[in-house]
Amino acid sequence: MKKKKYPIYSYLSASAVRPTGWLYKQLRIQAEGLSGHLDLIWPDVRDSKWIGGNREGWERVPYWLDGFIPLAFLLDDDELKARAKRYIDAIFDGQEEDGWICPCEKEERQGYDVWAAFLILKVLVEWHETTGDERVEPAVEKALRQLLGHIKSVIMFGWATSRWFECLIPINWLFARKPEPWLEEMAFTLSAYGLDYERLWRGTDPGTVEPEKYWLHLSHVVNTAMALKSRAVMSPFTGEDPDNFAKFMFKKLNRLHGSATGHFSGDECLSGTSPIRGTELCSIVEAMYSYEELMRIGGNAYWGDRLEEAAYNDLATAISADMNSHQYDRMINQVNCSPIEEGKQPFSSNGGGAHMFGLEPNYGCCTANFNQGWPKFARSAIMKYKKGYAVAALCPVSITDSYKGKDINIAVDTEYPFRDQIKVIVGVSKPVKFVLKIRVPASAEKALLITPDGKTEVNPGSFAKIDRKWKDQDTIELKLKFKPKLILRPSGMYCVRRGPLFYSLPIESEAKMLEYESNGVERKFPFCDWIITPASEWGFGFASSKFEKMEHPMPDVPFDREDPPVSLETWMYPLDWREYNGVCSIYPESETPIGEKRRIKLVPFGCTTLRMTEMPLIKQELENELV
Predict the structure, then answer these.
(1) 476 and 495 together in one domain
(2) Last residue of some domain: 175, 194, 213?
(3) Which distant-in-sequence residues (6+ apart) come within 8 Å of 356 by Cβ?
(4) Does one domain contain both 435 and 506?
(5) What is the pLDDT of residues 220-233, one digit of tens each?
(6) Distance between terminal CA atoms of the chain?
(7) What is the per-residue pLDDT for 75?
(8) What does the alpha-carbon distance between residue 398 and residue 365 come to, in Å, rounded to a whole number?
(9) Both 90 and 162 in a single domain?
(10) Which pLDDT belongs to residue 551?
(11) pTM of the prediction?
């Protein structure tokens, strides 16, 4: 068998990708919300040492730029581009003669955690791939050479040890352009000094031995999310299968710490399968990036399913619909977002306000980092490879490119995941032969592919391939059939899934605005904090395994909390289910109904603020209907 060459796919430049439909609206809302204002209102970005100020000079500016750069170019927004360039110019200007690129004095280098260097070099690569800026390659090479010497004399510590493989992003980029031995040496040096996640995960069950309160790099949820791709990004130097460890780790992680929506818990560290534990927002966007990288490198459709689950469910709900505020920890069953008395919060090491929506709940890392989620998702939706193109994530987006000297435009016209049809229109300047792949979601019961050459059923969980000579405006349709399902959770309760979307019982709420200043950071509307309390009943259990899908007009705000674009209706029983210290108990007091069954509307998890997602099935005789 011929050995595969990795990576299989490559990203297109963000300047060649255009979000359309609901995805354009989502990115425009992000630009007009908190993400697009951090350099204007948040001291850690506005006054950062990276641009000559006196505030944080470590990870927050690199985190923000990592999402802000693709956001600016996806939207083709000249103002956003100019604001990004101001920071990039300052980073180039601040690079020392010996290559050191982070903002600290020479005598401070030994105590500086070089995780920020890995991150800023990744940002510069993103800038180059988007703009072609010729300053990037010499600056990255100079910085990496200096960094290799630095880690040989100053042993890595802290976050750099846990996230060593992130530096492989700029190393691999430079090695593809200049395959020199010192880059290979650097890759293996980082690997030798860094945390060996494969040995850890194949030998133990991280996060399962839980002291009352703990914090540990080994089970830190964001490190874990990043580490899913650790062997894949090393594979160009080792030749290993990029999926081997990643799939093992993900399946074990999901079994031990998986939540009802497919993402894993962690508040701050891995925290089991309880529906009232939290999941840090940084872990969601970093898992998404890991899935994007795994799909790019290994070409496996499996990671596209994971990517869509994380984006359309977890990412959407952890940020307010207007994207002016976000949570640090999102919860599966979340009935209240009010401050919890210290010592009574359900989190392993986060504070009692970590689940609140605000500017900087708990820690500011998520404030800077959450904004990479949607832009990188859009950027990776259509990838290129040797034989053509792959529609890797199903969403409304178009790309322009050149293939064999012909101008190419591929447009995905869809309201998926809220609807079940995808149309792909291929524009070509002249007829040209190439392969177009379209990822078919594994959650589909059936999938019908309609091409200019006819109709065929295609396998869910794979890439459908169309190999033909394309004429201008040739159109492909993918029609998907999904079935709502009750899925048994480790708690003995159930969640509902239909296709890529999980559904929740939405709780009406009342919101109280909090405007104040703390540690020199002002919370002022619209970028303020919120106390959100329940204003409707929420204690219910499923009385049926049958669900009726209802489609509604697409709203201007894609994940609208008031008017979601799709819902399910089913019968449910009211239960005596109680709240303690602002958190619902894991189980109701009893599964005996306290009233007659009612017809209840469930909405996508991503379209909720307060919700119940994991609930008991009351009529046990219905269990034989479950899949």
Answers:
(1) no
(2) 194
(3) 327, 337, 338, 339, 529, 530, 531, 532
(4) no
(5) 999 999 999 999 99
(6) 37
(7) 98
(8) 31
(9) yes
(10) 97
(11) 0.97
Amino acid identity of residue 489, one-letter, is R
At residue 3, the pLDDT reads 60
Neighbours of 356 (CB within 10 A): 25
Identify whether residues 475 and 505 lie together within a single domain: no
- The range of the structural domain enclosing residue 476 comes to 393-481
Examine the domain organization and report whether 563 and 440 are in the same domain. no
**CB 613 within 8 Å of CB 332:** yes
Give the model's pLDDT for residue 8: 96
Tell me how far apart the alpha carbons of residues 189 and 191 are, in angstroms, rounded to a whole number: 5
The packing angle between helices 244-257 and 230-238, to 10°, is 170
127/130 Cα distance (integer angstroms): 5
Among 440, 459, 481, which residue terminates a domain?
A: 481
The SS3 of residue 143 is helix
Q: Which residues of the chain have pLDDT under 70?
A: 1-3, 209-213, 620-627
Instruction: Identify whether residues 477 and 489 lie together within a single domain.
Output: no
Hey, what are 320's tokens? 């307010």
User: Would you state the torsion angle of the CA atoms of residues 328, 332, 336, 340, taken in this order, to the nearest 10 degrees?
Assistant: -60
pLDDT 10s digits, 328-387: 999 999 999 999 999 899 998 999 999 999 999 999 999 999 999 999 999 999 999 999
CA 467 → CA 3, 408, 422, 449, distances in Å?
Answer: 22, 15, 18, 13
Inter-residue contact 503 to 496 (CB < 8 Å): yes
Number of separate domains in the chain: 3
